Write a sequence for this structure.
């Protein structure tokens, strides 16, 4: 059997397999949790959603300038799971190198290859083990690679992974990561409806966490209403503690206190949200992306 991590990192080169089947991973062979261990308080799971801004050589804010700031941010925060948007293959490899050996990632390009933007999921291998993963397209033909039937500017995808939490008695949960279209409200509405349908088909006994750039403001769009109607809550609203609020897209301009949150972390109601944050990290005025990452510290039990 080939090295599964190697396959998952390069799944864009094998997109037919990624789109056609749910892929079981070797982590499924872990021992079952004991009842006594399951009874203890769940350790916090640190989740981040981050639109990376694709790697460009254009100045200012080229990837060469942003990469060390991105590395410093991620090394400082060390999320257990990170849902990314817009990352190009070499950019994702750069992030992998910056995070170090304790991280791996799963993802494929939205065009079905390795040269286009991805919705990759990074995870801390000391904390999480993927059990299975799947990529589907946000279209009327979700299993068709590169499909775009709703008039979006680009094909859009969802990467989902069923994880086993190695520090929480082997508890499992789903992570779905996505990037909705920036141009078409109709495509976003159809995308939200498809995600709601797919979430309803998952194992209802397991928690669900959704990360993404939805390209609409929380509380002010039917897309948000549809996602919450899928049985999810906004971790920002349900958090016991919150950071200062900022608009999550800044475009390298001054930050907007209380601005629109278009990047969200959602979860099923049984998930405890200890804290939520919009991270404003920069170095000498250089931001790692044109979006601010959003974070949530969760208890899955």
């Amino acid at each position: 059997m080939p090295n599964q991590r190697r396959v998952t990192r390069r799944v864009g080169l094998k997109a037919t397999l990624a789109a056609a089947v749910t892929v079981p991973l070797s982590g499924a062979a872990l021992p079952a949790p004991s009842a006594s261990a399951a009874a203890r308080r769940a350790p916090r799971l640190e989740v981040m959603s981050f639109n990376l801004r694709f790697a460009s050589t254009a100045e200012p804010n080229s990837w060469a300038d942003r990469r060390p700031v991105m590395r410093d941010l991620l090394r400082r925060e060390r999320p257990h799971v990170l849902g990314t948007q817009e990352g190009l293959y070499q950019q994702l490899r750069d992030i992998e190198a910056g995070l170090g050996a304790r991280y791996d990632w799963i993802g494929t390009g939205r065009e079905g290859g390795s040269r286009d933007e991805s919705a990759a999921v990074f995870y801390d291998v000391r904390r999480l083990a993927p059990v299975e993963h799947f990529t589907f397209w946000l279209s009327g033909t979700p299993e068709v690679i590169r499909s775009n039937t709703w008039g979006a500017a680009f094909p859009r995808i969802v990467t989902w992974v069923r994880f086993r939490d190695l520090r929480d008695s082997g508890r499992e949960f789903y992570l779905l990561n996505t990037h909705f279209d920036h141009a078409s409200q109709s495509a976003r509405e159809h995308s939200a409806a498809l995600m709601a349908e797919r979430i309803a088909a998952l194992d209802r006994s397991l928690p669900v966490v959704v990360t993404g750039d939805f390209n609409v403001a929380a509380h002010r769009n039917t897309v948000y209403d549809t996602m919450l109607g899928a049985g999810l809550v906004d971790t920002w609203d349900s958090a016991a503690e919150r950071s200062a609020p900022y608009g999550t897209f800044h475009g390298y301009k001054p930050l907007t206190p209380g601005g629109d949150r278009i990047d969200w972390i959602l979860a099923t109601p049984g998930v405890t949200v200890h804290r939520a944050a919009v991270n404003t990290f920069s170095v000498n005025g250089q931001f790692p992306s044109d979006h601010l990452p959003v974070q949530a510290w969760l208890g899955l039990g």
Summary: The chain has a mean pLDDT of 90. The chain has one domain: 4-299. The two ends are 34 Å apart (CA to CA).
